[in-house]
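step=predict obj=SpoIIE family protein phosphatase n=795
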Amino acid sequence: MVTLPGDGERATTAGDAMAVVDARGIVTGWSEGARLLTGYAAQEITGRPVAELIDGGADTAWRELRESGGAVVAVRLRDGRRTELALRVCPLRSDDGEPGGYVITAAPDDGSRALGELAFRQSSMSMSIFDTEQRYLRMNDTACRIMDQAEAEVLGRFFPDTVENAEHSRGFLRHLRKVVETGRPVHYESWTRAPSGTRMHAWNTEMWPLRDPSGQLLGVALAAFDSSEQHLARQRLALLNKAATSIGTRLDVIHTARELAELAVPQLADFASVDLLDSVLEGEEPAAGPVVGDLQLRRVAHHSRTAGVPEAAIDLGAADVYPPASPPARALATGVAVLTRTGEADLDTWLARHDDRAAKLRESDNREFSLMAVPLVARGTTLGVAVLVRLLTLRSPDPFDQDDVSLARELASRAAVCVDNARRYTREHTTALALQRSLLPQVVAGQAAVEFASRYLPALSRAGVGGDWFDVIPLSGTRVALVVGDVVGHGIHASVTMGRLRTAVWTLADVDLPPDELLTHLDDLVGHLAADESGMGGEIGATCLYALYDPVARRCTIASAGHPPPAVLYPDGAVEVVGVSSGPVLGVGGLPFESTELDLPEGAVLALYTDGLIEARDLDVDAGTAALCAALTAPARNLEDACDNVLGALLPERPADDVALLLARTRALDTAQVAVWDLPADPAVVATARQYATERLTDWGLDEAAFVTELVVSELVTNAIRYGGAPIQLRLIRDRTLICEVSDASSTSPHLRRARTYDEGGRGLLLVAQLTDRWGTRPTGTGKTIWAEQPLPVQ
């Protein structure tokens, strides 16, 4: 505010003083504010040269003022006094773009306005003023530098006509118009190139309306701050935050390398590749520290802005040798990132000596690029190298800088830890899987009770291989035991526990215990194992289902320790889930197990499985069991196809838990293959038993086996009469072997002993053991059965 001459009580603003001058410098308009400021009335000054008002009346001073657009000049007032005024000169454009006149605004210079003008001019922020039609009225020095144009070149021009960047023009113009339309300030953020350059910048722009004292809108002022550094810093932090969730999502070396390459492009580079040592891919332990000399690395991942990855000179899965002078080899030798670009000797020499890379460079439209090789090092172990390439073009001319190197190091460090974790997991997973497969049945001894097929699928899980297992155990009397189990937990510990339980089941099955008794002994064993490992923090839990099938009686006896019940597909196509009385999980102890018996016709298919099968795809147990039953009824040429049908229906993808599946189709021995005689407990019946056996062997055409069979029958029947007692039964079975069984009422099992020279007995079982392939004893409901097997004569 200033005090006007002749009216000390009245004040006005700079915006009140205005004069209009034509192209010749003649005053054609004079405002009331100009009269109050200078004392001249409009009729006194209109038609006179404006230069007469300037102290000294020099045309040179007017010309300089007009060309500079504004200055502080000395003006003669009407009363003769001299005063300093800050004058602003704005040209008025004619239709042909030439100045058709000028608008001069003035205010007395009390020092503060000069300082304000200097602050506007010298501000580090870009500042401009537009009229309501988006035409330039003012620009400070920073805005002129960004626009690469002098203020006089743009004053009075429509903003879009002053820039070449159409995208920037549309957004900027839209916000200018919004301020005019709404009369409200606007905060505008953009990421674009400066009108005068090619480099991308982040702009924080504040636009606000300019009003006169009456409130009338005169124009729009703006201040734009170049926040590129802050914007790039936020981008780097966002990229690192994204890396924390997108790198290492799976314990897979190649997948993790692919995640790194895809994250780096396009946020950091135009092309990225990841090469690893072969030892890392194989799960082995690489050498610690830097790697020197010629390096063979294998390409595991690459990614590009351009579809098809045309920049890649190495195919995925292929190996390449990097000489010591190449950037990747230098990065691995020094353990620090290597930054280079085309035109530097090391990079050009390497490219020239590599035919494939040189050919790719010749084919490329962009032959100038910046390259960064970052080593992948985790826990002091070198794993490989990531190579990032940024193409240098007119639109993106900036090579990698140290900020980019720091960001790439952070990404590579995070990825290296994830790759190393995946490598360690691969090694442990491979070891556990190999151990588990070695413990699972490889070749099952010949038996006639069932035809079977099986599947085992390890889990696709971070926890590693589980403890699912199955077994087919041939037993005496042509019977067979079908076993399936699941150890709680994953990894090597679960595999080792599974192997111990499988060995225990084989041992208990060899004793020929009934299923419920076998699980009771197995439960005690798991309890002892858990007690032994409790001091080391280990826990053991397992489920198991044991099914014993007799093809002579065509009966199956099943006992379960917390395991899912089996399903049966009958020859007529009906499917039934066996109502097994499920006992506690192994290791609980103190609770009984119960056996369930059912008759199975020849050709029935018994399905045993672990819970990973029926609980796949987030199904509940009932839905999974129903899906299993439906899959069993699907047409199949054989059991192998039936296994595929079940897995295809219930496991469309790799399971999250281990899955074991065992399908067994029952067979039955014809009555003509079995001969049974009940014998009294009379020593005289031994000769009769031998005669029965000889006659049956003749009927079967096995006369060559009569001699050995008579000796075996004689010895076993004699022992049963002497030590066992009635009821006594002799049974001959002709299957893949000739089986002789003698049952008695005693539960005492015989054993071999070495008879002395003068002993009259004690040589019978030794003789049986020498003449037959196998012999043994098993308990029965009324006593025991002693059996012996001998090979059939060659036909």
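step=describe
The domain at 671-791 is CATH 3.30.565.10 (Heat Shock Protein 90).
step=end
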